[in-house]
Amino acid sequence: MAMSFEKLGVPKNVRLFFEPYYQVLPDGSILFPFGDDAEHFSLYFHQVPSAVIPWAAGDGPLVFISNSAMECIAFLSCYSHAYPVLGQLQFIAIGNYFTGINVLATKITLLFGRDILGRLTDIKVSTALRNKNLPIFYRGDEQFDVSGHPFSESQLSLNTFETALGIRSGIRTIKPRGYNTFLEQLKHQNL
Asked: Any residues with CB less than 8 A from the CB of 32 and at least 6 apart, and which?
């Protein structure tokens, strides 16, 4: 059993759902396999790999994509009440590097952070899911150029990007309430 999950307050049904997709080390830390690499987590550190092969858990039609397995677990821990049938869920963690993601699901939700890097990742991943490579440039003074359209840092989101370009991908984003990441939210609720 992963004591870190228990200390974080991860519900038992969430622990059981993810159990086949991680390994607990003798020191109590947890490894999530990303092909030849791994995400490594304990209450004292968290290492997310720059791996080509993503980590995946579940095989349901509702797909959630994040940068780390722990972020997926933290999200489901915070919102398990909204998803009573865990067999309908699939989680994909892409790490710090991705070249392309093949997801055949029609219901995709992105779980990246609330900060500017999370919002930029929302845009990059949503375009990668449509097999497009999108250039994003920082112009200074909190201004970004995304595919030839200027955005301020405060207004930049997947929704404003898609509205400006006339795109309707149907991809949702969920952001943590009051925290940058779901893992931060879970830690503050339970530690």
From this structure: 21, 22, 38, 39, 40, 41, 55, 68, 69, 70, 93
